[in-house]
Amino acid sequence: MKHLPYLILIAVFMFSCMNNERTNKNLSDTEIKIDSIVADTTKFLISDLPIIFDSTNYALHCIGFYDTYSRGKRYFVSENGRRDYGTNTLSISGQIANIVFENIKTEEKYLLTRNLLLICHIEYMGYIAQKTNNQYLLYELYDKDNNNDNEINTNDIKSLYISNINGKNFKKITIDNNEFLNGNFIEENMRYYFRTKDVAKKGKLHYYYIEFTNDDYSTYEYFPLELLK
């Protein structure tokens, strides 16, 4: 119970962010979702114990919603349990609505975003950090209610995002209405390859890679089938 005030502050923060935008009649799907969850008395915010990736200075407190009617009464956000965030030690998998980043040296804390998301996978690009000293996180997540069912869930379009290890510069990599399918990092050329499906064009596939350099990163589209034309 000693963490209850901390969770209440997070809930108040998210609720206040929603209220600040309520005067705008053109509310986004994300803001509508925040409103519906805050109003839902069967759910409340919980936080997992902090996770820190090796050789970094930032702990991640994964925030999610606990459903009082869910089976098992699980008080954790991760799909695999509080102590097992996946087979890869450099990744976190679960059903995460937001993340509180904590600088373990200064104890400064802040949220990843003011928008409600459903984050299903986070990967720390450890090899990039070793080679360039740049520390990045890749996120697979759902950010919009694409099917208009008043929920952001796995029935919507999955997107790919990136941020620095401290959660700053949180940016969307995939294009709107393009669903992230899968990705693969190639150490030899420092590129993360991924493909998407264009849901507006009968499922046309697109291929991209993120090229990491000593200074930054850039995203390019490539055409592996062009030689067959």
Summary of the model, kept short:
The chain has helices at 4-21, 29-39, 126-132, and strands at residues 43-47, 51-52, 58-67, 91-96, 98-103, 109-111, 118-124, 136-142, 158-164, 171-172, 178-186, 191-198, 204-212, 217-222. With 229 residues, the chain is of the alpha+beta class.
Give an overview of the whole structure.
This protein has three helices and 14 strands. With about 230 residues, the protein is α+β, with helices and mostly antiparallel strands. It has one domain. The strands form three sheets. Strands 1, 2, 3, 5 and 6 form a five-stranded antiparallel beta sheet that branches. A five-stranded antiparallel beta sheet has the order 4-7-8-9-10. It has a four-stranded antiparallel beta sheet with strand order 11-12-13-14, with no helix packed on it. Strand 2 (about 50) and strand 3 form a beta hairpin. Helix 1 packs across helix 2. The chain is flat. The N and C termini lie far apart (about 65 Å). The model is unreliable at about 1-35 and about 80-90 (pLDDT under 50).
Descriptive tags:
single chain, alpha+beta, 3 helices
Task: Set down the secondary structure blueprint.
Elements: H1 4-21, H2 29-39, E1 43-47, E2 51-52, E3 58-67, E4 91-96, E5 98-103, E6 109-111, E7 118-124, H3 126-132, E8 136-142, E9 158-164, E10 171-172, E11 178-186, E12 191-198, E13 204-212, E14 217-222
Antiparallel strand pairs: 1-3, 2-3, 3-5, 4-7, 5-6, 7-8, 8-9, 9-10, 11-12, 12-13, 13-14
